[in-house]
Amino acid sequence: MSDGSAQAGFPRRACHDNPALTLRTLKENMALITMDRKRLPLLLLLTSLSVASCTRGAPGASAIATVMPSAMLAGRAAQAMRSKESGNTLSREHQVVVEVRERDLDADFRRVADRCNADSADHCTILQSDLSTGDSPAGQIRLRIDPSAVEDLISFASTGGKLVHRSTTVEDLAGAIQDTQTRLEMLANYRKQLLELQAKAGSNIDAAIKIASELSTVQSNLESVMGEAAYQTKRTTTDIVALEFIVPAHSAYWRPIRESLRDFVGNLSTGLSQAITALAYIVPWLLVIIPGLFLLRFLWRRRGP
Predict the structure, then answer these.
(1) Domain spans of the chain?
(2) How many Å apart are CA 249 and CA 79, to the nearest integer?
Protein backbone atom coordinates (compact mmCIF):
# COMPACT_ATOMS: atom_id res chain seq x y z
CA MET A 1 0.00 0.00 0.00
CA SER A 2 1.45 3.39 -0.91
CA ASP A 3 1.95 6.31 1.42
CA GLY A 4 -0.76 8.20 -0.45
CA SER A 5 -3.34 5.61 0.49
CA ALA A 6 -2.24 5.79 4.11
CA GLN A 7 -2.65 9.56 4.11
CA ALA A 8 -6.11 9.14 2.64
CA GLY A 9 -7.21 7.27 5.73
CA PHE A 10 -6.62 3.65 4.65
CA PRO A 11 -4.83 1.21 6.93
CA ARG A 12 -1.11 1.06 6.49
CA ARG A 13 0.54 -2.25 5.78
CA ALA A 14 1.91 -3.93 8.86
CA CYS A 15 4.83 -5.42 6.92
CA HIS A 16 7.68 -5.01 9.40
CA ASP A 17 10.18 -7.48 10.72
CA ASN A 18 9.72 -6.03 14.19
CA PRO A 19 6.55 -7.48 15.82
CA ALA A 20 6.29 -4.55 18.23
CA LEU A 21 6.26 -2.10 15.34
CA THR A 22 3.74 -4.22 13.51
CA LEU A 23 1.51 -4.27 16.62
CA ARG A 24 1.62 -0.48 16.76
CA THR A 25 0.65 -0.29 13.10
CA LEU A 26 -2.28 -2.66 13.72
CA LYS A 27 -3.51 -0.49 16.58
CA GLU A 28 -3.41 2.56 14.29
CA ASN A 29 -5.34 0.62 11.66
CA MET A 30 -7.93 -0.41 14.24
CA ALA A 31 -8.36 3.24 15.24
CA LEU A 32 -9.00 4.15 11.59
CA ILE A 33 -11.48 1.30 11.27
CA THR A 34 -13.36 2.38 14.40
CA MET A 35 -13.61 6.00 13.31
CA ASP A 36 -14.54 5.35 9.66
CA ARG A 37 -17.41 2.83 9.75
CA LYS A 38 -18.76 3.85 6.35
CA ARG A 39 -15.74 2.31 4.65
CA LEU A 40 -15.40 -0.47 7.21
CA PRO A 41 -15.61 -3.47 4.77
CA LEU A 42 -12.90 -2.00 2.51
CA LEU A 43 -10.68 -1.09 5.47
CA LEU A 44 -10.98 -4.59 6.91
CA LEU A 45 -10.06 -6.12 3.57
CA LEU A 46 -6.99 -3.91 3.13
CA THR A 47 -5.79 -4.57 6.68
CA SER A 48 -6.20 -8.32 6.27
CA LEU A 49 -4.32 -8.35 2.96
CA SER A 50 -1.47 -6.31 4.38
CA VAL A 51 -0.95 -8.65 7.33
CA ALA A 52 -1.35 -11.73 5.16
CA SER A 53 1.44 -10.54 2.89
CA CYS A 54 3.75 -10.13 5.89
CA THR A 55 3.01 -13.46 7.50
CA ARG A 56 2.92 -15.62 4.39
CA GLY A 57 6.34 -17.06 5.17
CA ALA A 58 6.08 -17.26 8.96
CA PRO A 59 6.39 -20.84 10.28
CA GLY A 60 3.21 -21.97 12.00
CA ALA A 61 1.52 -18.62 11.49
CA SER A 62 -1.32 -19.90 9.34
CA ALA A 63 -2.13 -22.63 11.84
CA ILE A 64 -2.18 -20.28 14.80
CA ALA A 65 -4.11 -17.62 12.91
CA THR A 66 -7.03 -19.94 12.41
CA VAL A 67 -7.45 -20.50 16.15
CA MET A 68 -10.63 -18.81 17.39
CA PRO A 69 -12.61 -19.31 20.60
CA SER A 70 -15.01 -22.21 20.32
CA ALA A 71 -17.65 -20.19 22.14
CA MET A 72 -17.40 -17.47 19.51
CA LEU A 73 -17.71 -19.93 16.67
CA ALA A 74 -20.70 -21.59 18.28
CA GLY A 75 -22.40 -18.27 19.05
CA ARG A 76 -21.90 -16.85 15.59
CA ALA A 77 -22.96 -20.08 13.92
CA ALA A 78 -26.14 -20.29 16.01
CA GLN A 79 -26.99 -16.67 15.33
CA ALA A 80 -26.37 -17.04 11.61
CA MET A 81 -28.51 -20.18 11.47
CA ARG A 82 -31.42 -18.55 13.29
CA SER A 83 -31.21 -15.43 11.15
CA LYS A 84 -31.15 -17.52 8.01
CA GLU A 85 -34.12 -19.60 9.09
CA SER A 86 -36.36 -16.76 10.24
CA GLY A 87 -34.92 -13.70 8.51
CA ASN A 88 -36.44 -11.79 11.41
CA THR A 89 -34.97 -8.62 12.86
CA LEU A 90 -38.11 -7.49 14.71
CA SER A 91 -38.51 -7.48 18.48
CA ARG A 92 -42.12 -7.67 19.71
CA GLU A 93 -43.68 -6.88 23.08
CA HIS A 94 -47.36 -7.62 23.81
CA GLN A 95 -49.33 -5.73 26.48
CA VAL A 96 -52.36 -7.69 27.72
CA VAL A 97 -54.92 -6.67 30.37
CA VAL A 98 -57.30 -9.30 31.76
CA GLU A 99 -60.21 -8.48 34.08
CA VAL A 100 -60.85 -11.15 36.75
CA ARG A 101 -63.00 -11.47 39.83
CA GLU A 102 -61.25 -10.56 43.03
CA ARG A 103 -61.67 -14.00 44.57
CA ASP A 104 -60.10 -15.56 41.44
CA LEU A 105 -57.15 -13.17 41.21
CA ASP A 106 -54.67 -15.27 43.18
CA ALA A 107 -55.66 -18.54 41.48
CA ASP A 108 -55.51 -17.10 37.94
CA PHE A 109 -52.19 -15.41 38.63
CA ARG A 110 -50.56 -18.61 39.91
CA ARG A 111 -52.13 -20.67 37.12
CA VAL A 112 -50.38 -18.58 34.45
CA ALA A 113 -47.09 -18.53 36.39
CA ASP A 114 -47.14 -22.32 36.84
CA ARG A 115 -47.85 -22.86 33.14
CA CYS A 116 -44.93 -20.67 32.11
CA ASN A 117 -42.54 -22.37 34.53
CA ALA A 118 -43.54 -25.78 33.11
CA ASP A 119 -43.42 -24.72 29.44
CA SER A 120 -39.80 -25.45 28.55
CA ALA A 121 -40.71 -26.42 24.97
CA ASP A 122 -41.67 -22.80 24.17
CA HIS A 123 -38.75 -21.37 26.20
CA CYS A 124 -41.12 -19.53 28.53
CA THR A 125 -39.24 -17.52 31.16
CA ILE A 126 -40.77 -15.24 33.79
CA LEU A 127 -38.85 -11.95 33.90
CA GLN A 128 -40.95 -10.21 36.57
CA SER A 129 -44.04 -10.99 38.65
CA ASP A 130 -46.01 -9.00 41.20
CA LEU A 131 -49.22 -9.85 43.06
CA SER A 132 -51.05 -7.41 45.34
CA THR A 133 -54.15 -8.35 47.37
CA GLY A 134 -54.38 -5.25 49.56
CA ASP A 135 -56.52 -2.17 49.02
CA SER A 136 -55.78 -2.25 45.27
CA PRO A 137 -55.76 -5.91 44.22
CA ALA A 138 -53.87 -6.56 40.97
CA GLY A 139 -51.31 -8.86 39.43
CA GLN A 140 -48.59 -8.43 36.80
CA ILE A 141 -46.48 -11.05 35.02
CA ARG A 142 -43.81 -10.15 32.48
CA LEU A 143 -42.39 -13.12 30.56
CA ARG A 144 -40.49 -14.11 27.42
CA ILE A 145 -41.80 -16.88 25.15
CA ASP A 146 -41.56 -18.19 21.58
CA PRO A 147 -43.73 -16.20 19.12
CA SER A 148 -45.67 -19.31 18.10
CA ALA A 149 -46.94 -19.75 21.67
CA VAL A 150 -48.07 -16.18 22.34
CA GLU A 151 -51.67 -16.62 21.21
CA ASP A 152 -52.17 -19.81 23.22
CA LEU A 153 -50.74 -18.13 26.31
CA ILE A 154 -53.03 -15.11 26.01
CA SER A 155 -56.07 -17.34 25.49
CA PHE A 156 -55.08 -19.39 28.52
CA ALA A 157 -54.60 -16.28 30.67
CA SER A 158 -58.01 -14.86 29.75
CA THR A 159 -59.90 -18.13 30.33
CA GLY A 160 -60.86 -17.24 33.90
CA GLY A 161 -61.68 -13.60 33.11
CA LYS A 162 -62.23 -11.14 30.27
CA LEU A 163 -59.65 -9.72 27.89
CA VAL A 164 -60.17 -5.95 28.04
CA HIS A 165 -57.02 -4.61 26.34
CA ARG A 166 -54.25 -5.80 24.07
CA SER A 167 -51.50 -3.97 22.21
CA THR A 168 -48.26 -4.91 20.46
CA THR A 169 -45.08 -2.85 20.16
CA VAL A 170 -42.57 -3.72 17.43
CA GLU A 171 -38.93 -2.57 17.22
CA ASP A 172 -36.71 -3.20 14.20
CA LEU A 173 -33.21 -4.26 15.27
CA ALA A 174 -31.78 -4.64 11.76
CA GLY A 175 -29.35 -1.75 12.18
CA ALA A 176 -28.20 -2.84 15.62
CA ILE A 177 -27.73 -6.46 14.51
CA GLN A 178 -25.70 -5.40 11.47
CA ASP A 179 -23.53 -3.15 13.61
CA THR A 180 -22.92 -5.95 16.11
CA GLN A 181 -21.99 -8.41 13.36
CA THR A 182 -19.59 -5.86 11.87
CA ARG A 183 -17.89 -5.36 15.23
CA LEU A 184 -17.64 -9.13 15.69
CA GLU A 185 -15.91 -9.49 12.33
CA MET A 186 -13.62 -6.56 13.07
CA LEU A 187 -12.54 -7.93 16.45
CA ALA A 188 -12.16 -11.48 15.11
CA ASN A 189 -9.98 -10.21 12.27
CA TYR A 190 -7.88 -8.14 14.68
CA ARG A 191 -7.43 -11.14 16.97
CA LYS A 192 -6.34 -13.26 14.03
CA GLN A 193 -3.70 -10.68 13.09
CA LEU A 194 -2.44 -10.55 16.67
CA LEU A 195 -2.06 -14.33 16.71
CA GLU A 196 -0.04 -14.11 13.52
CA LEU A 197 2.22 -11.52 15.14
CA GLN A 198 2.52 -13.71 18.23
CA ALA A 199 3.81 -16.53 16.05
CA LYS A 200 6.45 -14.21 14.59
CA ALA A 201 7.55 -12.73 17.92
CA GLY A 202 9.79 -15.71 18.70
CA SER A 203 12.30 -14.79 21.40
CA ASN A 204 11.34 -11.10 21.45
CA ILE A 205 10.04 -11.01 25.04
CA ASP A 206 9.00 -7.35 24.97
CA ALA A 207 6.93 -7.80 21.81
CA ALA A 208 5.40 -11.03 23.12
CA ILE A 209 4.26 -9.30 26.34
CA LYS A 210 2.68 -6.40 24.41
CA ILE A 211 0.92 -8.76 22.03
CA ALA A 212 -0.38 -10.91 24.91
CA SER A 213 -1.75 -7.78 26.64
CA GLU A 214 -3.47 -6.64 23.47
CA LEU A 215 -4.88 -10.14 22.91
CA SER A 216 -6.40 -10.08 26.40
CA THR A 217 -8.10 -6.74 25.69
CA VAL A 218 -9.40 -7.90 22.33
CA GLN A 219 -10.70 -11.15 23.83
CA SER A 220 -12.59 -9.21 26.53
CA ASN A 221 -14.15 -6.92 23.92
CA LEU A 222 -14.97 -9.90 21.75
CA GLU A 223 -16.83 -11.67 24.55
CA SER A 224 -18.76 -8.48 25.35
CA VAL A 225 -19.91 -8.08 21.74
CA MET A 226 -20.79 -11.79 21.58
CA GLY A 227 -23.02 -11.33 24.63
CA GLU A 228 -24.71 -8.38 22.94
CA ALA A 229 -25.25 -10.47 19.80
CA ALA A 230 -26.77 -13.30 21.87
CA TYR A 231 -29.16 -10.85 23.54
CA GLN A 232 -30.23 -9.45 20.16
CA THR A 233 -30.84 -12.99 18.94
CA LYS A 234 -33.01 -13.68 21.99
CA ARG A 235 -35.01 -10.50 21.37
CA THR A 236 -35.74 -11.42 17.75
CA THR A 237 -36.46 -15.12 18.31
CA THR A 238 -38.71 -14.71 21.37
CA ASP A 239 -41.50 -12.26 22.29
CA ILE A 240 -42.15 -10.46 25.55
CA VAL A 241 -45.67 -10.70 26.99
CA ALA A 242 -46.71 -8.33 29.79
CA LEU A 243 -49.86 -9.68 31.47
CA GLU A 244 -51.85 -7.52 33.88
CA PHE A 245 -54.74 -8.85 35.96
CA ILE A 246 -57.20 -6.23 37.23
CA VAL A 247 -60.33 -6.37 39.39
CA PRO A 248 -63.59 -4.77 38.11
CA ALA A 249 -64.35 -1.30 39.48
CA HIS A 250 -67.73 -2.27 40.98
CA SER A 251 -66.03 -5.06 42.91
CA ALA A 252 -63.54 -2.58 44.32
CA TYR A 253 -66.42 -0.23 45.30
CA TRP A 254 -68.09 -2.79 47.59
CA ARG A 255 -64.82 -4.11 48.92
CA PRO A 256 -64.49 -1.67 51.89
CA ILE A 257 -68.05 -2.52 53.04
CA ARG A 258 -67.39 -6.24 52.85
CA GLU A 259 -64.15 -5.83 54.76
CA SER A 260 -65.92 -3.75 57.46
CA LEU A 261 -68.60 -6.41 57.94
CA ARG A 262 -66.00 -9.15 57.96
CA ASP A 263 -63.90 -7.35 60.56
CA PHE A 264 -66.87 -6.19 62.70
CA VAL A 265 -66.23 -8.58 65.59
CA GLY A 266 -62.54 -7.84 65.62
CA ASN A 267 -63.11 -4.07 65.51
CA LEU A 268 -65.71 -4.36 68.32
CA SER A 269 -63.22 -6.25 70.47
CA THR A 270 -60.56 -3.65 69.77
CA GLY A 271 -62.93 -0.79 70.64
CA LEU A 272 -63.97 -2.40 73.94
CA SER A 273 -60.37 -2.98 74.92
CA GLN A 274 -59.53 0.64 74.18
CA ALA A 275 -62.54 1.85 76.21
CA ILE A 276 -61.51 -0.28 79.20
CA THR A 277 -57.98 1.04 78.93
CA ALA A 278 -59.25 4.63 78.87
CA LEU A 279 -61.46 3.93 81.92
CA ALA A 280 -58.44 2.61 83.79
CA TYR A 281 -56.68 5.92 83.18
CA ILE A 282 -59.75 8.05 84.15
CA VAL A 283 -60.75 6.36 87.46
CA PRO A 284 -57.73 7.65 89.48
CA TRP A 285 -58.43 11.19 88.32
CA LEU A 286 -62.09 10.89 89.37
CA LEU A 287 -60.93 10.22 92.91
CA VAL A 288 -59.30 13.64 92.87
CA ILE A 289 -61.75 15.62 90.76
CA ILE A 290 -65.04 14.63 92.53
CA PRO A 291 -63.89 15.58 96.06
CA GLY A 292 -62.48 18.80 94.63
CA LEU A 293 -65.83 19.71 93.13
CA PHE A 294 -67.60 19.15 96.47
CA LEU A 295 -65.02 21.33 98.23
CA LEU A 296 -65.54 24.16 95.75
CA ARG A 297 -69.32 23.91 96.21
CA PHE A 298 -68.95 24.07 100.02
CA LEU A 299 -66.71 27.14 99.87
CA TRP A 300 -69.07 28.88 97.43
CA ARG A 301 -72.04 28.41 99.82
CA ARG A 302 -70.08 29.78 102.77
CA ARG A 303 -69.42 33.04 100.97
CA GLY A 304 -73.16 33.60 100.80
CA PRO A 305 -75.02 36.21 98.83
Answers:
(1) 87-183+201-253, 263-303
(2) 47
